[in-house]
Structure formats: C-alpha cells, structure tokens
Predict the 3D structure of the following.
Amino acid sequence: MPELTGPTLPTPPRRTRTAATWLATGAAVTAALFGAASVPATAAPTAATAGPAAARSAAAPDISVADVKAHLNQLQSIATANGGNRAHGRSGYKASIDYVKGKLDAAGFTTTVQQFTTGGQTGYNLIADWPGGDANHVVFAGSHLDSVTRGPGINDNGSGSAGILEVALTVAKQGYKPDKHLRFGWWGAEELGMIGSQNYVRQLPAAERAKIDAYLNFDMIGSPNPGYFVYDDDARLEGVFKDFFAARKIATEIETEGDGRSDHAPFKDAGVAVGGLFSGADYTKTAAQAQKWGGTAGQPFDRCYHSSCDTSANIDDTALDNNSDAIAHAIWTLSGGGGTTPPSGTSFESKSQVAIPDAGAAVESPITVTGVSGNAPSALKVVVDIRHSYRGDLVVDLVGPSGKTYRLKDSSANDSAADVKTTFTVDASGEVANGTWKLRVQDVAAQDSGALNSWKLTF
Ligand code: DTR
Ligand code: ZN
Ligand code: ZN
C-alpha cells in the first residue's frame, strides 16, 4: 500500500500472556535427551508388515510459532544490518529474498526469482512450488516481503511472510503430498502499490491463471493489539478460515478496510478466488472488539504501522500463532486431504489404548521392532493417533532403543484444538532399527485428558 506518513508512535505495551509457562515450539525433529520417566509398560504390540501405508493427514499440523518468530528475528537482523529497513530497491529487501529463498531451496521447493523495475529500482518476487499435486489445480498463498522505508516492517509484513514460510517448511517436514499443487509467493514493492504482485499476475498466461483455485493473502497477521479479520471476497474461502477460528472459539469479523489494499487485489481483478487474514493496522480497536479479542480499546490495532517501531517487539505472539495455524488449516483443507509421503517398507504398530492422566506423569507405549537390518531411516515416519480435548496440553516424544528421546510435539497454550492425529518425520538414523521403541505422552496442564489410541513406526 502506498507509504503513508504520520507520527512515529512509541512501541505499544505488549499484551501479557497467560500465567502458565508453556513450551511454544512445535513438532521439532531435533534429538533432545530427557530423563526416562517411570511409567508402567503396556501390552506388547502386534507387529504388522505392510506395503505403502500412507496415513491420510486430513488435519493440518500445528505450526511452531517459535519457528515463525525465528524467521522474524532474521528479518529484523537483516533490516538492522541494512539501514533499518527492507524496502523496495534497498539492500535489505534483496537480503530478505535471499533468506527466504535459501530456506525453501534447502527444503526441496522449486523456487523462481522474478525481476521487475519500478521507481527506477529493480524489484523481486519469489515464487516457490512444492513438487507434485495436480498442476491444473493450484492452491496459492502469498505475502508481500517489502517494508516501508521508515522501518523494518516486522508486522507489516514480516508477519505474513514468516507465517507462510513456516507453513511451506512444515509441508516439507511432513512430507505432505497434497492432491492439488501448492505454490507460495513473496511479493516486492507492495508498499508502492502492489507492484510486484501486479507484475506477476500480468505476465501469467490466462491458461495458467485459470489453474489457480485459490489465492490466499496474508498481510499483517501479528498486530500487537490484534483483531481477527477474515477476507470476505469469496464465501468458500471465508468459510474455511471462519470454521478454523470457530473451532478455537475465536470470534472473527469480515475484513472491510482492505478492499484493493493488498496483493490479493491483482488476483481478484484477474478473476481468481481470493481469501486471507488480517490482524489490523492503523484503525482503532473499539470497545466491543476489545471485549471479544482482548487488547486495548481506543488504540490502533498496530500503533507502529509504517513506522520505525514496527520491529520484532511489535508482534502479538498469540495472534501470530493462531493465524499461522489458520494458514496451515486452509492449505491442508483446500489442497485435498493428501497423505504424507507414503512410507514404504515395514510397519510396526501398537493398538493398545493407553489412558493419559490429566496433568499427570508421562505414559509410554512400547513397540518392539525385529527383522529390520541396519539403522533406522533419517525420515522415520511416526503415525500418532491420540484422542484429547485440548491438544495444547500434550508433549509427545519418541524414545529410541538407545534411550535417546526425539521431541515430536511440544505443549502450546494456544492450541485448543482436539486430538493429535498426524504423521511425524524423525531423523532417527543414529538408532539401530531393531529393539524396543516407545512413544511417551504427557499431559502437562490441568482440565483435559485423553488417551493414546494407536501409533505406528514405518521403516
Ligand atoms: N495494505 C497493507 C496494510 C493494510 C491496510 N488495510 C488492509 C486490509 C487488508 C490487508 C492489508 C491491509 C500494507 O500497508 O501493506
Ligand atoms: Zn504497509
Ligand atoms: Zn502490508
């Protein structure tokens, strides 16, 4: 959006978080050594040999808000090292493109950098395609990566850029195989009037444009005094987001101030169905909105909009977390419930149900693996089926035969959704495959409980 001028405002007071201390990182696959918990063993599982055992993961995985914030910290460092901004035509913008591209290339995306010129300066769009899926049906998520010249642009729009980046990287971590083709875009020169996204849409042949089933735009998703606004340009896409927030009991409003004010506009003008999320800019939060969303009435959603104080301190973590999870929900939902990369080889499964005590000791479920030669793979698939009324209470670990623990899922104060039914991918190449593996689950917060229904290892 054209750069607006106005007073530089002090950084707003940060919203206090709930008192509970929680681990907010998501499904890490790095190994962390924990002490063994003393818990009763359960009945021996049945070993099952199977061919491809694709686990259809209809539910999107939790997006690690810690990982999203790590990207924001990188963008902040880039701005700090490049004159304080990441604006079009400045070194900080190209450095931002290089950072995002490097992450995606390493994760297996097919990336393209598209150049354009505006204001006498070279601009860049970054497009990343996840290999596979029906190329005639594209689900497209985009965010502008440029800031205004006055500041680092961490909420506007590092937040959207980091949110879709972490969703893309989670697609790769999960080995997600969607029915439709996934594409992600990071746009240049949005602040000059959506120049980068206009350039992309204009150069796209009509036949390619027609293949885009949905373009989802995320421009400001972590505002410090946040609102939860859903674009209402397309009823189907609006419904996907509203369903997500309803399940988390978060009220939403339709986004009304942004028509034409961000990168969804060129796609909509070209006849593409568009949707998206917005947490608010320089408009003032009303008392009614503060009643349902918390925060401060009478103050802007983002007092540092287009200002030098739009730094990494200018983010509400809860809004960033909820909106990043909403992006993943939309991507998984709209791309058809494809499974993860179908694991081939031998599977070992336990169907012994194990009760998970509320705020209690960790419980374990063992699987004894035999007949697999050598070490476990670097992409060991762990399919987990846990019934629970508040999955944010749960910490889930895989314990290898050596006793080494691999963190699959941390607890999260903000993940109020039910159940953990997903496939984790773990680098367990340091473990000998044969031996007793254990899934360790602990409920670390009061008021909700559940049970492990089953879990499966595929080598
Ligand atoms: N155009 C965005 C900020 C913005 C203002 N209103 C809306 C509504 C919907 C999306 C974005 C916005 C910018 O300054 O980058
Ligand atoms: Zn802006
Ligand atoms: Zn923006």
About this structure: Confidence is low (pLDDT under 50) at residues 2-57. Residues 1, 148, 156, 191, 306 surround zinc ion (ligand 2) (CB under 6 Å). The CA atoms of residues 187 and 279 lie 19 Å apart.
